[in-house]
Amino acid sequence: MLGNEGLSIFGDTRTEDTLKALAGMGEGRTYYVNNISGDSGNDGLSWTSAFAQVSQAISASETYRQLQGTDTNDYIRNTIVVQGTGTAYTALTALPSYCDIIGLGAPPNGNGAGIARIGADGADGIAGTARGLGLYNLQIIAGGAFYCMDFVNLFRSTIKDCGLFAAAHHTSGGMRFSSSSGGNKIVHNHWGSASAHSNFLTGMQIDGASFDHNEIEDNFIQGKNVGIKVESTATQAGWTIVRNNVIGNIAGEGCTIGVIDETEATGNIEYSTTHIIYANNFITASSAFANTELSQRVGNTVVEF
Question: How far, in Å, CA of 77 to CA of 27, rounded?
Fold first, then answer.
């Protein structure tokens, strides 16, 4: 019987035949994007007919995905491959569901050439709602009163090996969840600066009523005012764990508070039914925690200055 071992999002062990054999998964499409050689009039189905912008591939992916469920309710998963060039792709105001967007090129945690970059100063880098979204090896940029990743609802999605980069001094934040989200894996990402002295005021902002069953792990999360802020509106944040992250004063810009968690608890906190758990993080800030219960904090290393 086919199991899950050996599956890889980058295709080194998960072949097309394996995908077809997985129950409930139809044959998805792969779309290619290159803002140097691509064109909006292409079909995006090969490098020689690549789209020019990621937004064009998202529109095509959503159209094709939704067509598959008309009669059979089959769920397919598409892939968008984005070529890293010397030019950033335009910001995204809509996101695909059940789709992986993969940057092809240099690692995204720097300012070198060949990174698959999306966004610019003066707007959210990416924004919208999605289910089953995968973001890999992308650098997302924002500047001013905006966020690199500004999600309304995000469910059962993965953000891995991405860079969230501030393009201006006092950029609002790296990542925000403005409404209910859950079941996400946010792992091995890097908050950074796209230019000298640019920074985030808040690394991660959680506003939605529900933020449960998330894994936030092995990230470098930078925020000048606060690394992670959970508003009191998040009344259901249980079974979410924040662990093994570096949080706070990463880029030498300082950090006032590492974590502010204003969750209004219901139920028994000892069983983490309503609260986020912070475990084994390295937090460097003027003050590491504010408004968090002692039982939420497990084995963190704190450097206050």
Answer: 8
User: Which of 280, 264, 191, 193 has the alpha carbon at shortest distance from 227?
Assistant: 191
Residue 156's identity, in one-letter code, is: R
User: Per residue in 259-276, is it b (16+ CB within 10 Å) or e — as a string?
Assistant: bbbebebeeebeebebbb
Q: What is the largest CA-CA distance in the chain?
A: 61
The first and second tokens of residue 253, run together, are 């810009």
Of 59, 103, 75, nearest to 19 (Cα)? 75
Q: Minimum mean pLDDT among 95-99, 102-106, 264-268: which range?
A: 264-268
H helices present in the chain, as ranges: 16-21, 54-68
| Separation between Cα atoms, residue 268 and residue 274, nearest integer Å | 8
The average confidence (pLDDT) of the chain is 87
Which residues lie closer than 8 Å to 48 by C-beta, 6 or more apart?
none
